[in-house]
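new request in #modeling-help
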Amino acid sequence: MKRGGIMKQIFKPQTIKYIWMVLLTALIIKVIWFIIALVFLPTSGIEHIEEQGGKPLYYRVKLSPNKAPPPPVTKKKQTVVIGGDIKDIKLLAIYNSSDTTIVTVEFGGKTRVLSRGDKVKGFALQSATKDWAIFLKQRKTYKITLDKSKSSDRMITTSTKVATPKTKSTKPEGEIVDGGKLKIIDKSLIEHFASNLNEVNKNIGVRTIKGADGKIGFGISFIRRGSPFAKLGVRRGDIIKSVNGKKIDSYNAAFGVYKNIANITNLTMVIERNKEEMELEYEVN
Amino acid sequence: MQMVKNIVIIVVVVWFGLVAFMPKKALYYRLEEELAKQDIKLNEKLIEESLFSLRIEGVSVYIKGINIASIREINLFTLLLYSHLSIDEVNLDSSLGMLAKDIGRGDIFHSISSPTNLVVDVNSSIAKVDGLVDLIDRKVRLDIENSPNIKMIRPMLKKDEKGWYYETNF
């Protein structure tokens, strides 16, 4: 009897009218939203595609099974030979400051102290970092790594400390060595600046230049004297055109290179100086 | 009486229909389009639409193509008369060299009781921020609690009797 009463209540013409009214209103709203979505709203979002910044133009590959003689062109080029060719010379200690470079070397059982420009067996000392020294002979550059087994108890530790006094923990370590056409940058230096944008801004100023086509360029506005950036070969007024073949004509491109700089081993930068383009080459070691 | 009852039912159904059937995902895409005009792009891993809310997970924020920040989750809950947008775990990109990388959590509220204003509440590692967005005057005022961490953003701030604040127009 009671159940019959409920059923009667549900199927009351008034209730059915309400249900129809609710369903119809909901349907109308749904249709309105559907039309709005179809006509005015997009069906997919906008995705930013991350560009791969600063990809190396080339990789150094050692093809040891190839017994063919090296092409004559490589002889003309300045190359960095690690140890090998001057292996009789052992690097025992390095004293390096901004204006002085002194190294201690051993050859033929004798020890010699060399300053920048001094020669041993015809190899002239050119520059040094805390871990290695660069020598020049017949327009070729040679790199000798510090013999740490022999130098551990020598003056190297003290001399390094004197050369680079620790004023702040944020001071970057590592050097940029001018190896002629190719500049060798210490990896620790790159890693330091890659994670400290403020440090970069303190040492080098980059201003944006807007072109007529709406594209932007990046010019060097200042370089702090004595900073590692001063040894990169760039000058105030230079405009960075491309890095590793990638045009630097947007914030995205510039920041892409900066973000990937720690993963780069070879870097070729094209700059515009006095309306002439020139290429700068770097190796990260 | 019957008329009032009908109107109430219609209003409730319209309100429910508007909120529940709202194409939230498409509206979010529209917002993305508008932001893209200002060179701001949002990349997200997941967009989830439900009856009263829209949840977006793993958002990367790009300004002029530069990845400025990442957000773990954005949640919009709306009943039209009251809306709440929560932004969880905002992390600034480490390459920006900012002191504070973890900004924390932000909440934006809109209520029918004050339809022309948005209330902003941010709990960040830099400072606690309370603010108001005036939608009519297109003005933003954010009151920033004094803390040693605001040192790096202080050049952008102004000071009055209430303390440090940030003000801008849009």
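bot summary: Chain A touches chain B at residues 18, 21-22, 25-26, 28-30, 33-34, 36-37, 40-48, 50-51, 194-200, 250-253, 255-256, 258-259 (CB under 8 Å).
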